[in-house]
Amino acid sequence: MITDKCKLVNNNDERGNFVVATNEIKVGELLFPEESFASIPLEFHMNKDYCFLCCKQSEVEQVQQPSQQPQQTNNKSIQCKFGCNMWFCSEICSNDMTHQLECSFINKLIESSIKNECDVSTCLLALRIMIRNKIESDKYQETVGKLSNQLEKFIEINKSFIEKYDINFQQFINQLQQENSDPSLLAIFNKDEFLQIISSIYINSFSGLSNDFNRKPISNGYFYKPALLNHSCEPNIFFTIKDKNLEMRACKKIEKDEEIVDSYVDLLLPTIERQKILYNSKNFLCKCSRCSDSTEDERYLSSIYCFHCNDGVEFISPEIYFNKDTKKLQENWKCSNTSNTCEFNKKKQNKRNKDPELVLILAGINEFKEFINSEQLLFNDVNLSTADQEMPIIENILKRLLKFERDVLSRLNLNHQCWLIYHIKLSKTFEKLSLVYNNFDYLVQSIQHYKELTRHVESIFKSSTSGELVDCYYHLGRINEKYLLSLIKQRNQFNQLKLQNQNKQDLDIDKLNSDIKNLLKFINQCYTNSYNHSVLVYGNNHLKSIQLNEMILKSNLKSTTTN
Ligand SMILES: C[S@@+](CC[C@H](N)C(=O)[O-])C[C@H]1O[C@@H](n2cnc3c(N)ncnc32)[C@H](O)[C@@H]1O
């Protein structure tokens, strides 16, 4: 028994051990909270903002300023006094025994890891786990030490990857020996153990995401019980990490004896991309119902309108399979038309894959993705002083995107991944432009893309709940709040001019008032949706749920004061 809600099942096939529910589990029910055996911030976050030991986001205090002065903040982090210069949330973390033991090795390991192109954060986490193993060897043996049944396979398949870490470790040790480091400290290190831990981190660790509504990866942690769960692209649990604590909640109802499965990949990706990640990083291919169906159980993230059926109803979608000879994932395209009338389906499989029309569309998709990745679509550099000079460049990019929409995206199912990328990028781009140019039209366009984005994400998660939905509804509410404020401003200006008898504007004030009311209702609904998902995936007491609850109240309150 892992907890009172689930138990481990020993299994020898390629899936290895797995976990099942011992009783029915309701949506939103907490399966287990667990503190990590060891965690570390990712390389870019090894700074003042996150504690190097527990990964807690640093507290910021407001500095009292004379009223006219801009507000200043003071980061409460403290820097290590033992020599590594890393940042900690408190004296307790900075003086922690694990850190005292690792401290003098940190900068040397960072240096050799960068030189050998190894991931810095993974190497430092492995160092920390090795040290923790010496301090708490019983706990290690009882938990993380048991997560080794997939290691041999990983090491066998990823020989060149392991070799890189092997060389890195050797160089790190050589340097310590040349510097005559304390032999009793050097005795902590063992190359085989280091490589086993590195492999285990790749197989078993969990990344923590930022606590805001943008979910950026910030840390990596090593947890025992959650690491016993297998993967599915139709998961029934959702995990969150706060500092060094992980919580898992059911995102669907789980029946007694049903396997509890978690997702190791971004579920907004189409099958071919999810499978490539799973195969390259975890050495297996998922056989869940979403992966086994060419339409992804009607999610259509890779589906193209059939250019032979030409009726706007049938779609060509790829079946993904693993070619044992080339050891690569391949696609077999087929039309959904089952009536034997589709010219595309009449062709043999290899001819279908090479159909010139299909090849053309796939090339267009690649070109679109390259363009999206290469262009600075968020125009982060645009500011008020340079806005006018930037405008022709921005207009050109938007024109190019419209052309992609006409030539490529219009040929794809509305749930195709390209549309998702398009809405993600354009929602933020138009939001930024509306801010820089103070332009209403850009704001309206941004809202349209946020709406489409939310609809799209809903269709991917279907009847399930997820953190992505919390964020989508939050952002949809937030952008509409901006719109609401501009409508209220417009109404106030109108009323003021009317009072002064100067109003020459042709404005339907009743319509504007009713738009404001409806918009407020919509915003309130967005925050309510976001909150409902948040309570299920993060729980009542999570900061996001608390913030969302306040937003619901605020948008309700406004409804009584906007008139
Ligand atoms: C975090 S562990 C999960 C527990 C693991 N089954 C065990 O016995 O320790 C991850 C590893 O389990 C295996 N695994 C997880 N999900 C799988 C799946 N859907 N199909 C095949 N193998 C899977 C893979 O070898 C993967 O690298």
UniProtKB/TrEMBL annotation:
Positions of the SET domain: 4-265
Q: Which Pfam families match?
A: SET (PF00856)
* Parts of the chain that traverse the membrane: none
Can you tell me which residues the record assigns to a coiled coil? none
**GO CC terms of this entry:** nucleus
Q: Which InterPro entries match?
A: SET_dom, SET_dom_sf, SET_SmydA-8
Record-given protein name? SET domain-containing protein
Species lineage, top-down?
A: Eukaryota, Amoebozoa, Evosea, Eumycetozoa, Dictyostelia
